[in-house]
């Protein structure tokens, strides 16, 4: 078929982009990659259409080239297309380079055994160096764009295979001082330098002359993969963050090795060269460069952080967020070794003033606030060499960053966090001082609670109030002067608006005991002091179920007895029973017995009466420890949101079949050769104790009749289990794959199901013997079977290799149950019955040292290739 037209390709690409997985599973998916590579060389398609095809290959390489071999073929074809381009300017050279690089990197084909890799790497390095591979390959108008593209491709390959460009450091360093694209070369050299430093020290080697050798690593020969193979290829990703406690082995080794004076001098010169040209880069590229170099030199002996000082002076006043982030990363990495006290004060003042700018968009405003909150704590050295006071945020500096009710929620919470930090460092107030941060915090929280208490107010206001309360509780947990008014304010909020009970329950679940316990006491007192007929009874019961305990039993029981008469619908009755359950778990007994008896008689809903009766029985027959276990949450299953089984979530878990990892392994043993059907022998092995195991088997297609399930009462690890027999009912004599599904009960009472690895039925597993003929009649019986196969059947001859055991050993190991006539050690006649109604007859005669010719007949043509493969593999079978 010829190349597709532009419209046909547009329609095809549109269908692919709409659903790549569905398209690849369809009839056209298999040919998409091949057609794409073929039509790139067609003269009928425009360059614009070809660029669209190449863009698709770069966006979806995993779908087009799913394995390494397909990626290798694709990269080779793309490089061939690149070489065949005419010497005139073309829009295809850069996309072809990018597509070939993407295919190798995404397909996992990049390596020393890849022919496409050995072609692409020297080509990219030559283009990055500004040289022409020959025959007008690079027109003058495309030289600089191609040079930049080659650098980007090399950077991608170096990221995939760290150390790939270790031998090219000197060459790349020399290119940086020449005319060429500065940004791609700088980033490429920085990445290669960082990876080489990590990998060289990981294997205990130095830089040697890598920074001064300006010869191509190929040198006219193969590419040097030594450094890639010595490293494990797993370095931390190139993200602008600084690992601290979880550093890799290679990064830790940098702090333990010292360069020779020559290596240190060349390394310092290379770093200075990169930093001196960094001002020519875009802000994002500058941040990436500073991060790579900072990581490479962090803690390295002989390389002082002062190398970054000129850049720090230049960037302290930057308005670019990416560069400010890079400066903060350097601060976190080097601390006082790079930043003086004046630098830190200037940076902190810069952050606080920028965060107050009124025209900042919300994301930028939040970024500045986050930087202020995360500013690294340190103790900078003073000018006289003595330790100065710690750098802290004072009220004067942060006066413009205090939160207000007018701020949007995210900004208010960030500013509130900053205010909490100020309150944590606050000293006793002096007379005549302005209102303290603590006083301002109390007024802000009071305003938030006042807005949350408004009837009919939006839910967002209540959510913001509880978020702020949680933040204050976390930051100021050890300060009673803050927590006490917070607790009383929250209690007043509940009194004004009981429908916020779910928010209170969530807050109690999240905060520490410093706030949780006193808040529970106050809320419980407030609830039980209300009349039981309150219109907000459902919220009071929900709150009481959370805060009820063994304290104030009489007041709680009086409230419940008064409320029971007003619990007329199902929801209220369930809420009342949840409180009783909480009291049961808390060990309350006196008075609760009478209440449960009343509920078991008076509740209108039968489900509620059953719950009350169950609780009464448990209370009357179980001691406190066992009662707590019986009513506690189930540890065997996650919580289920069902009020019908609120007394024990494990009841529902026990009644549901849950998917779980496979706790049993199956292996196939030797099959039985007796009986009317082939029987597969399975050996089970349990990883944990399991009970009532049911194994279900399914064969795809119609090859076999449905298989019966196999049942095992109990399996325990370390205890041998009897083999399981699985009868097979083939509808045709062919191998098959069995999908296995296990259903079992665990020791915790859960019923689980799991998918086990598939089992394979081999051709030999179907062999059955014919009925044994009378003594002395074996040859006549075999000849009768032999003649019956023709003319409807088929006949063939196969060469069967023999191993060191010879013909007699091969027959005794594999074919002995089926031998009808034997004249050892030279001649055997074998008759095999293949269910449902086929036969396979073998004559093994005139054996030689390395094999034996086998004449075979069968009444089923489909058996011939299976029998041939089986006989040829007998010598290698164990």
From TrEMBL:
Keyword annotations of the record: Protein transport, Transport
Organism per entry: Pan troglodytes (Chimpanzee)
Lineage: Eukaryota, Metazoa, Chordata, Craniata, Vertebrata
InterPro entries with a match to the protein in the record: AP5B1, AP5B1_barrel, AP5B1_C, AP5B1_middle, AP5B1_N
Domain AP-5 complex subunit beta-1 N-terminal: start-end pairs: 35-104
Gene Ontology CC entries for this record: AP-type membrane coat adaptor complex
Domain AP5B1 middle, residue spans: 263-627
Start-end of Basic and acidic residues biased regions: 250-260
Record-given protein name: AP-5 complex subunit beta-1
Region described as Disordered: spans on this chain: 234-260
Highest taxon of source: Eukaryota
Domain AP-5 complex subunit beta-1 beta-barrel: 690-759
One BP annotation, GO: protein transport
Chain ranges of the AP5B1 C-terminal domain: 781-873
